[in-house]
Design goal:
The chain is 3% helix and 48% strand. It is mainly beta. The strands form nine sheets. Strands 26, 28, 29, 31, 36, 37, 38 and 40 form an eight-stranded antiparallel β-sheet that branches. Strands 30-39-32-33-34-35 form a six-stranded antiparallel β-sheet, with no helix packed on it. A hairpin with a 3-residue loop joins strand 33 (423-429) and strand 34. The longest helix is centred in the N-terminal third of the chain and has 17 residues, at 2-18. It binds (Z)-L-Arabinonhydroximo-1,4-lactone (6LW). Residues 35-36, 51, 95-96, 142-143, 204-205, 220, 224, 266-267, 283, 500 line the site of (Z)-L-Arabinonhydroximo-1,4-lactone.
């Protein structure tokens, strides 16, 4: 009996040890294409939103209880009729958002660049439904934020260029009262800050906080690349004057030089936990040999105060890839299965398309996705029949099983890695072959072609840092390479790519400009991080 009790004790202890929350967390907290983060807290719950440009649905809302484990709970822009991305290049669309909570209502304020500009949406449930956009035609510039003062007045804080630049790329952070009853800006517009540096470029991403009765304005400056930085400015009045903190920049990686593996740190938003800690989410770019293939990701850093001055990771002064996690209840969410078997009657929330769909082009039934072949191609600035999920790791593999046969030479379907309409890979099945194609700066190259006429095919892609290898087979156990080791520089920042968005991997079907009644049927899609 004693032995049995000892065994039970050891097993239980093992289980308890197994569930012991970690002491640290790893950055990025949201890997892959998660730029321009904004965060708010409601009680013990945290909500975070990112920019998404022409991905649809847009403005993903993530929920967390511990600032480390995040769960996608919805999108603020998820109805095709509320915004129109048609004709927009991949670098335009939904720029930096801000999420805030006031008197029982969630607000997300944002800019649809190239499509009616500044607007806000509201919801009582952050998972949605969100309201239709309330457009603010009088609000210039981008990067809007909201702040409620103690007297209940709501202020719109934004950034805009200046008419007569005293230095190149000079911009200004400004604010103005937002009358939420009339749903418009009212009163005088006030310039708050041109940034800290006397040649601060792209002062943007402004947020106002009121801490111990003083107003703190935090902005980004330097632009969303090598010189990105966070600076803070103080005032006793909401409309200023704002005095720059001597410690500026309070956070940057620009002084670490070109070879540092984490750069472009900036575009931050502060949050105070229910336990009185302060943390900041911000964007950053991880680099391999100076290349950024995953886009701008979301990072987390501790903030402590010395008077009115925020000190980021005291003693370190930089974003850390691992650090002591926030003093919050460890709350992991159930991980999604690596293989999406397309159960149910709709796609999981991680799936997006490019630009606003004008018609239903897929449906989910009987554990399959039926992707309609349409005339539209992903090389054009339209919504084609493409479904993507974010690539979130430098070492990953993706695989899908497709059922598609055609007698028409214009019909194709298969697997894609997509960054922009001009920079992507396609591994497609057509009338009698499988063809691997690369589009780089708009130049299309056929990398490989193999004869293939069977109805079913499994496509596979494996990414490892800057290399990628595509494969195919009748089953996932009989994969053979197609093409050689190709370069993921095709989807890296620069090289014709916007640095704003990020890469996705997924499914694509097209009839290349001709009418078609065909469908490509996908049984499952698998994505996983490789060790
Ligand atoms: C965003 C601006 C920025 O609106 O890039 O990194 C723009 N910061 O603040 C697009 O992401």
């Amino acid at each position: 009996m004693k032995v049995l009790k000892l065994c039970i004790f050891l097993v239980m202890s093992g289980l308890m040890m197994a569930q012991e929350p970690p002491l640290t967390f790893n950055n990025p907290i949201l890997p892959g294409y998660h730029p321009d983060p904004s965060i708010c807290r409601v009680g013990d719950d945290y909500y975070l939103v990112n920019s998404t440009f022409v991905w649809f649905p847009g403005l993903p809302i993530y929920h967390s209880k511990d600032l480390v484990n995040w769960q996608l709970i919805g999108h603020a822009i998820d109805r095709p009729d509320v915004v129109d991305f048609d004709g927009l290049p991949d670098k335009l669309g939904l720029f930096a958002p801000t999420i805030r909570y006031h008197n029982g209502v969630f607000y997300i304020i944002n800019t649809c660049v190239g499509c009616k500009m500044n607007f806000y949406v509201t919801a009582t449930d952050p998972a949605g439904p969100w309201s239709d956009p309330i457009w603010l035609p009088d609000a210039p510039g981008i990067d809007p934020s909201l702040f409620w003062d103690d007297d209940g007045t709501c202020y719109y804080t934004g950034m805009v260029g200046v008419e007569k630049e005293d230095w190149p790329t000079q911009t200004v952070a400004w604010n103005q009262e937002l009358d939420l009853e009339q749903k418009k800006l009212v009163g005088e517009r006030m310039n708050l800050s041109f940034g800290h540096a006397n040649n601060a470029s792209y002062t943007e991403g402004p947020h106002i906080y009121k801490i111990n009765g003083k107003y703190l304005l935090m902005v980004s400056e330097g632009g969303t690349g090598m010189y990105h930085a966070l600076t803070v400015h103080h005032s006793d009045s909401i409309n200023g004057p704002y005095v720059s903190d001597y410690i500026n920049p309070v956070l940057t990686h620009r002084h670490y030089g070109e070879d540092y593996p984490l750069h472009a740190i900036g575009h931050g938003d502060l949050v105070e936990t229910q336990n009185g800690e302060w943390w900041c989410v911000m964007l950053g770019k991880r680099r391999i040999n100076k290349e950024t293939t995953l886009g701008r990701e979301t990072f987390l850093a501790k903030v402590e105060w010395e008077g009115q001055t925020p000190i980021f990771n005291p003693g370190e002064g930089k974003v850390l890839m691992k650090q002591k996690r926030p003093d919050l209840p460890w709350t992991p969410f159930e991980k999604e299965a690596m293989r999406d078997n397309f159960d149910g009657n709709k796609l999981g929330m991680k799936w997006c398309t490019i630009r606003t769909p004008k018609e239903d082009f897929y449906h989910v039934a009987n554990g399959k996705v039926q992707l309609k072949l349409r005339k539209e191609v992903m090389d054009s600035l339209v919504n084609a029949s493409v479904l993507l999920q974010r690539i979130e790791h430098h070492s990953f593999e993706a695989m899908t099983k497709m059922n598609f046969k055609t007698s028409r030479s214009n019909e194709q379907a298969g697997l894609t890695i997509y960054r922009t309409n001009e920079n992507h890979f396609k591994l497609l099945k057509d009338k009698k072959s499988l063809v691997l194609m690369q589009s780089f700066k708009g130049e299309v190259t056929e990398l490989a072609r193999v004869p293939y006429t069977k109805k079913e095919v499994v496509f596979h892609v494996k990414g490892n840092d800057l290399e990628v290898q595509f494969s195919f087979g009748e089953t996932e156990d009989s994969l053979k390479p197609i093409g050689g080791s190709e370069s993921l520089v095709v989807i890296a920042d620069g090289h014709g790519n916007t640095q704003f968005n990020g890469p996705g991997v997924g499914m694509y079907a097209t009839s290349n400009g001709k009418v078609s009644k065909s469908y490509a049927v996908f049984d499952w899609f698998e994505y996983k991080e490789l060790p």
